[in-house]
TrEMBL record:
SUPFAM superfamilies from the UniProt entry: Histone H3 K4-specific methyltransferase SET7/9 N-terminal domain
Species: Marinilabilia salmonicolor
Protein name as catalogued: MORN repeat protein
């Protein structure tokens, strides 16, 4: 008789446990739902809500593809991720936050889906960093009246915790003579043009970035001798590009 009571108690306990487990699983499965909202002239936004009506994500679409800014949120309402999309892929500044609102990760995509820089934060301090602050992309070489016109697209990546960023750019020939120089202050995108004599066969683009932090102490954050060699092909409107 005692054995029968024991098995009955085990069965009841198992039934209660399974009921609780299935109840929680069902609640999690139905915890969010979508609502499509269209704002005139601004595309279509998909807004995702939690079961209690709190917004968990806002995504921007154009022709059923992610385009524009998108946001997602922690359960406490603080922002989890700020991202911009182009043709379904992340582009530009990308920020991920902890639940307490402090920045956890920063990433920069120079082109859709092409990550070139990332930082990891802990308690507001940088703990890890990959990639470079300065990205050079050659636009082309064109011939004008016997000389060559060199065009370079320069992107200076400025994370949220950087202030008063100054970028010094020098163009040097194979004999280490300075051909030209330019200085950018708090400027993220710049197209650099300069005239090159056709006797110049190779140029080195050297970039230094200086960052003035919150304590107003200017430091050399990192020196860039990027060895971006632009090989000018005499008589042709093209060049070879090597990134070391």
């Amino acid at each position: 008789m005692q054995m029968i009571k024991f098995f009955c108690c085990c069965f009841v306990a198992l039934f209660v446990f399974e009921s609780c487990f299935n109840s929680n699983s069902k609640k999690e499965d139905n915890s969010v739902y979508q609502k499509i909202e269209k704002l005139d002239g601004q595309g279509v936004y998909e807004v995702t809500y939690t079961e209690d009506g709190q917004i968990s994500a806002i995504k921007s679409f154009t022709n059923d593809t992610l385009n524009g800014f998108s946001y997602s949120f922690h359960e406490n309402g603080n922002v989890y991720e700020k991202a911009e999309f182009k043709n379904g892929k992340r582009i530009g500044h990308n920020l991920i936050y902890n639940e307490d609102g402090m920045l956890a990760f920063y990433r920069y995509f120079i082109k859709p889906g092409k990550l070139v820089f990332r930082r990891a934060y802990q308690n507001g301090n940088v703990v890890k960093e990959d990639g470079g602050f300065i990205v050079l992309e050659p636009l082309g070489i064109s011939q004008e009246q016997g000389d060559s016109l060199l065009s370079i697209h320069i992107t200076t990546i400025i994370p949220p915790d950087c202030y008063n960023v100054t970028t010094d750019i020098e163009v040097i020939d194979e004999k280490h003579n300075i051909l030209d120089s330019v200085q950018l202050i708090d400027q993220e995108v710049f197209v650099y043009d300069m005239q090159l004599n056709n006797t110049v066969r190779t140029v080195l683009v050297k970039c230094n970035l200086y960052e003035s932090l919150l304590d107003s102490v200017t430091i050399v954050h990192r020196e860039y001798a990027m060895n971006n060699m632009l090989k000018i092909l005499a008589g042709e409107k093209d060049f070879l590009y090597k990134h070391n």
